[in-house]
Amino acid sequence: MYHLHELEILLGNIAMDNRVTLVHFRLYVTLFQYSNLFAFRHPLTIPNELVMKIAGIADTDQFLQCIRDLDQYGYIHYVPSSNLYALVYLNYNPSGSS
Q: Containing domain of residue 81, as a range?
């Protein structure tokens, strides 16, 4: 239930954040859903292809830019993986503050 509250906070914050696009939102919700499947254990290694498919992102460059943006905006803490086909998604922050 706690995590649903965090998602509600995120939705409110994203609505007020002009930097966040629909693509950012879909990506964040996909990461949230994936984390939920694994009981929010962090760090998680997530296959890029799977995340891109679920989030509806076809372009790898757009995907990586959105991941970096969400990290820069403070919504997630992203650490690139040494594996080019996976990302490490460490934490998320619904308040969007670093």
A: 2-92
Q: In what order do the strands lie in the sheet with 86-92?
A: 44-47, 86-92, 76-80
Is 55 buried (19+), middle (13-18) or exposed (0-12) by CB count in 10 A?
Answer: buried
Question: What does each C-alpha distance from 97 to 22, 72, 94 come to in angstroms?
Answer: 19, 9, 8
In the 8-state DSSP scheme, what is residue 25?
H
The number of domains in the chain is 1
Calculate the CA 8 to chain-centre distance. Answer: 15
CATH number at residue 69: 1.10.10
Instruction: Render pLDDT for 19-55 as a digit per residue (tens, 0 to 9).
Output: 999 999 899 888 888 887 877 776 777 888 888 999 9
How far, in Å, CA of 74 to CA of 49, rounded?
23
